[in-house]
Design goal:
Blueprint (H helix, E strand, L loop, with lengths): L5 H10 L5 E6 L11 E8 L2 H13 L4 E4 L5 E3 L4 E8 L6 E4 L2 E5 L4 H10 L2 E2 L11 H6 L3 E2 L2 E2 L4 E8 L4 E5 L11 H4 L2 E9 L1 E2 L2 H18 L5 E2 L12 H7 L6 E2 L2 E3 L7 E3 L5 H19 L8 E3 L3
Parallel strand pairs: 2-5, 3-5, 4-19
Antiparallel strand pairs: 1-2, 6-7, 7-13, 8-14, 9-10, 11-12, 11-13, 15-18, 16-17, 17-18
Length: 306
Amino acid sequence: MEAISSFILDFIREHVPKEDILLNEPMSGHTTFRAGGEAACLIRISSSKQLAALLPYLKEKKIPCFVLGNGSNLLVGDKGYCGVMLQIGSKMSTVTAEGNCIRAGAGALLPRVAACALENGLTGLEFASGIPGSVGGGIVMNAGAYGGEMKQVVEQVTVMDEHGEITVIENKAMEFGYRTSIIKHKPLTVLEAVFSLRAGDKDEIRALMEELAGRRRSKQPLEYASAGSTFKRPEGFFAGKLIMEAGLGGYCVGDARVSEKHCGFVVNTGNARAADILAVIREVQRKVKENTGIMLETEVILLGDF
């Protein structure tokens, strides 16, 4: 893997404190799969000002870059990523309630935003209380669970384009769809979002969160590292059921395994390599296609060299 040139690093150091610039950083520590090789450079972003300096510069210099949240929907290859990871996390994670709305930084984790809603007696975000992603990633993918989706609660999203310009996009212009949004298809980075909720009863909100948490524990392999649902739901079908019917429950390569508890999850049961996880994904796709004619699409983003 090529190192980032000293010339590029000099520019980065002009805008980012040295403790927030991590070279040859193992991505196993930044993804919920707990697997993957090194990123040539990972930068912990602390402000939109930093992004406004870095995004246009990296584009001009043709340096690959990827905006990273909590890494809950990402698999980085064992040979690593030769570009720059721009990690929007705890340094851009402010969450505040304003009447019936919540304003949250892109780096805030969705369970924390849901907890803020509960504290303020606001209903509508209960479905997000168990989603391990960040606000930014959740909006890009229109994250959802148990009948709820980001598109139902997002009022507006503040984004930055590749030239460092900031724009506010209203819900109706976000082009939300099943696990997609306008941001997935354009060079835009989420900075923050406003969620429009409704006044509710705290006890009822808490009870629903606890009910959904119980359903997750009983039906999902939360004891293992994973990226949640590995595959998108094919129209008219459930991925997990198709995988189970293909006889792939428990199928494994190394420590990567199709969970018997929920066949829609590929899990890391120990020290799986990214290549092992990918091999399981590909075999699932092959076998389900062979059995049903349906090609399962991954929800998980595949990045770097495997």
